Every structure is written in C-alpha cells, then in structure tokens.
Amino acid sequence: MRWLVRLIGSVLVLIFLLGLMVVLMPKDRVAQMAADRFASATGRKLTIEGSVRPSIWPVLGVKTGPVRLANADWGTEPDMLRAERLDIGLDLAALLSGVVKITGIEVVGPDLLLERHKDGRVNWDLSPTAKAAAEGSAPAQAAPGYDTFTLDHGRIRDGRLRYVDRAAGQAITLEDVALESAIPDYTGPVSLQGSAQINGQRVALSATVAALGAFLDGKTTGLDLGLVTGRSRLSLVGTAGFDPVQVEGRLSADLSDKAALAAVAGQPLPDLPQGFGRESLALEAGLQLDAKGAVRLRDLAVQADGGQITGRLDWLPGKDRPLLRGDLAMGAVALPRTSEDSAPKAAEGSGWPKEEIDVSALGAFDADLTLAAQSIDLGSAKLGQTRATVVLDRARAVITLLDAAGYGGKINGEFVVNGRKGLSVGGDLSFAGLSMQPLLADVAGFDRLLASGDLRVKFLGVGNSLDAILRGLSGEAQMHVGKGELRGLDVAGMLRTLDPGYVGEGAKTIFDTMSIGVMITDGVAVSEDLAISAPLFAATGAGKVDLGGQKLDYRLMPRLLPKSDGTGGVEIPILISGAWADPKIRLDLEWLARQRLTEEKARAEAAAKARLEELAREKLGVEALEGENLEGAAKRRAKQALEDEAARALGRLLGND
C-alpha cells in the first residue's frame, strides 16, 4: 500500500503547487501580453476590459472580461469585434520555467463585423501595412514576430458574423457561429472547421489553406474548401487569392436539398423544369473566378433528374446586367407549364388559362447560348432532337430553331418572348412533313385530322396571360397536306344520301390533298381558300375560327364528282360550328334552298331574256351577234338603218337613181 500512499501524496503536492502557481500567476501580464502581441501582429488595438481571472480547467490559463477589437478607421462601427470574454491557454512547461507562452485562445460570444468599402478595401486586412497603404504612405515594416506567430488551438463559439458589402449592396448575417483552428506554422498550411446558422439553416464549413501567411497577404495559394447544408454539399479544390480576387480549381456540388438552399438564400428557389434539376441536381466543373467577378465553368457535367448536361458556361458581369454565355448539350428537357391543367382545359373547351405569366426573370441577365437536346417538352408541344440558339437581350428572348425534329418532320424558324413592356410573343416557324394529328392535339386539343404535310406560321400576340395573347393574336398561316382522313365527318356519305347523320364516332372523310390559307386578326383566323381533293368529291370552304374563344364557324362546299355518264355532280354545303372541342356538323339546307332559289331566278331571267330576243328577231329583224345583248343589237340595227337611209338620200341629191 506504500506506493498508493506515495501516489496520493504526490498528486496532492502537484495540486498544491498548481494552485500556488495560479495564485502567483501574473494574470494582468498575460492579458496585456495577449493584447500587445495581437496589436503588434495586426496593427489594431485590442482592449481587454474587467478583471483577469486564473483558471485550471479545462485548460491552464486565464479568463478575461469583455473584449473589443478596433475597426478600420473607415468602418461604420467603432469595433470590428466584440466578445463576452477570452479564454487564454498557457504552456505549463514554459510557465514552470517562468516564461509565459500562449498556446490557445477561445473567443466566447463574439460579434464580428466584416465590411467591404465601395473602393474595395476590407476591414479584415489586419496587416500593419494596411493603413499606410490606404493613406498612400510608405508601407511600414511588419512587426517582429508576425511571421512566427503560432497557435496550438483557436476556437470561437456562440458567435455572430455580419458581412456588409457596400460595393455590391449586400448584407449577410450568420448566427450561432462556431469555429476551430490551429496555426502550427504561420507560413505553412492551416485547417479550419466551423458551422453557423443562416436564416435558421445550419451550414458546416471546412477549409485548408496551403500557406496562411501568403493567403492573408492576398497572394494565390492552395485551397481546399467544403460546405455542407442539409443534404447539399459543395467542394472546391484548387488555388485562391484575394489581392486581386482569383479562384481556380475543380468544383463539385450536390444541390438536391432545395429546402436547405432556399433557407440559406433567404428566398424561394426558381421552379426548375424537369431535366434541369426539379428532383435532383449535381455538377462538376473546372472553375475560374477573376477579379472582375467573371465566372467560367469548363468541362461542365451536370447530373439533373437522372439526365446529363455537358458543355461550358461563362457568367460575365456587365454595366447594366450580367451575361450568361455558353454551349450546352442535354438529354430530355421538359419546360414548366403555365398551369398544371392548362392543356386539359383547352381540350375541354373551357377557355385558356387567365393566370398572369411572370416573365420578370427575363430582365435579370442577358444570354447567348447554343443548346442541343435529345427532346424538348414545351408543355403544349413536343420536339425531338433539337439544336437551337437562345439570345436574351434586355428582357427580350429570341429562340432560333436551327434544326428541330418533331411530329415526324422538321421544324425551323424563330420564336420571340418580349418582356420589356408587359409581355408579347411572336414567331415565324416552318414545319415540313409533320404529322398533323399529334401536333394539333397537343397545340389545340383537336385530334380529328390524320395526315402529313407542311405548315408555315407567322404570328404576334400581346397580353399578360395565354387567354389575352390568343384573343389578340394576329398573323397568317398556310397549310398543305397530302393523303389523309378527317375523323368525325363522312362528307361523301352526306352528299350521296343528303343525310346529316354521317357524323360522330366511326365517320371519316378520306381525301387526297388539302390546302388552306389563313389570316389572323384579333384572335380570329379567317380562311377563304380551303381546297380538298378526294376520290369521290372535291370541296372548297370558307369561314372563321375564334382562337381565343375556341369556337369555329365554317362552311364546307363539297361536290360529288360526276359519273362517267355525266350524271351526279351534286353540291351540298356542310356547316361546321360551335366549340372546336365538340363542333356541330349539319347540312346547310337553308343555304342550299336560297342557292337553288337564286339559281331558279337566274334561269327564269335568262329564259325571259331569250324570249325577248326571239320576239325582236321576229318583229324587228334584230339578230344579236356573238357576245352582244339584245339592246346592243337593236342599237346596231337602228344605226345601220339610219346609215342606209342617209346613203339613199345622198344618191338622189346627186342625181343618182
């Protein structure tokens, strides 16, 4: 048991010596040493208020009262840092030999203000030459010991950080800040770990700087940076410096946790379309950031909703707005619809969506992009493999389809969305070899026309909703299709039987060609030149389609082709009217009766005229020449009689018999 007694006695003696050492410790000297050491290394005054108390646990050292660090002379507040207290750790071995050596500093409850002046100066430049450089005087020599500053352990807890960029007009506040670091060699690598709350969302930070001294001097040095919030992560491995600002390296990011990112951003994130990160988004790229704020991404690879986007992007600051420039190749793309059920509503004939279309994002930046996609779902239309350019200038976007496949054919032309003053849309598009049924079904909810053909459309619409745009639409269109069929209507059956019941399910009209031209004014498309060629009949047509109201009023004029013996050739008009989702089709017998009455009247007038001519020939001897009416023949006959009588009178006067 003697060894146990000796051990306990030794421990008691050690505790007594430590207690005596703490009592005799030069506490004020330690605090003043820390303040002087910091001031000599940074050029800023560090004020330690209140009493300085010794501590044994958890570290040997002293605890100070409130602490204040002076701000830059141009700062908006007198203090750059205010803290509840400092816990200063001391080296025990050095202390036993009579030397005070600081091994660690813990800052409790700090409130740190970081400011960037409009001229680019920053208040966290703590080198003693910063003030001299700002005033234009000769730089002072760094204080002795600045390059040899070391710290075994540094810690910040329960802090707040405010960042104010007066040049950019931005302000960010971080709460519950916690940081830990060590500086074993001021000129060597230093690692930092920390976390903070931004708008209530926890963000974790890890960073390693290859050379701390060079980095704080603004020089470019190696940097390994990592950020984590929720399930989203970002990492950068490369080089960085801030005098001037420049970053280059490999960027990796997983941005799938949109709720966490929205909380950090302090605002809702944009509703990304399917294929662009609606469900998941991750990227890797070579990153370049320069002093002007230009960001360049090279070898970009984005994993979005299971698809991949590759290419390059440049984000270039501008005087009025930034410019986004680049080339992107992607898989299937689905753009967001104006409304979840806008397409079904159009098909049901209940009207176009009246919700206001927000195009304010068009004014956020300019763009010059070249895009290639395997397919594009526009909501109301679908494209196959597509190559296009997008030019966005002052809230006016011009989308040029260089080569687009869709509905079995090819599409070329341009589409314009102008958000400069309200909203207007326009386009000049050519469709070649398209399958009309799926196209018209997607665009207008009309699936009765089965044929392939060509279509040319030019249009302009103004309004802040789809309903307003279509009700004010203007433009023109031409369509020509080859052999096909029109479902829901049997024109030949109607003509043969004069029965309007040849409509509905199972009825169809087979044709060889169809062509039509349309002029659009105030949302109403008017056509006067419909022409249909079919095996049993030929038809013309005229009428109008109310695009905004989704109604039509059209008269089809089909005529049965005459038989080989010359019989047949019946012409009966067909009236198509009502909502285009469920049009009413009927024989226009009233028009037919009026037409027949007009024809009978014309025949009666012709018969009466013929009888008058016959009587004139019999009574007056007037015979009409070819192309001459009865009145003209009578005048000619009277003139001829007068000329003959004048000739006879002249002969008698001259003595001729």
TrEMBL record:
InterPro entries: AsmA, AsmA-related. Keywords: Membrane, Transmembrane, Transmembrane helix. It comes from the Bacteria. Residues 7-189, 345-529 form the AsmA domain. One of its GO terms (cellular component) is plasma membrane. The chain crosses the membrane at residues 7-25. Pfam families: AsmA. GO terms for biological process: regulation of protein targeting to membrane. PANTHER family: DUF748 DOMAIN-CONTAINING PROTEIN, PROTEIN ASMA. This is AsmA family protein. It comes from Gemmobacter fulvus.
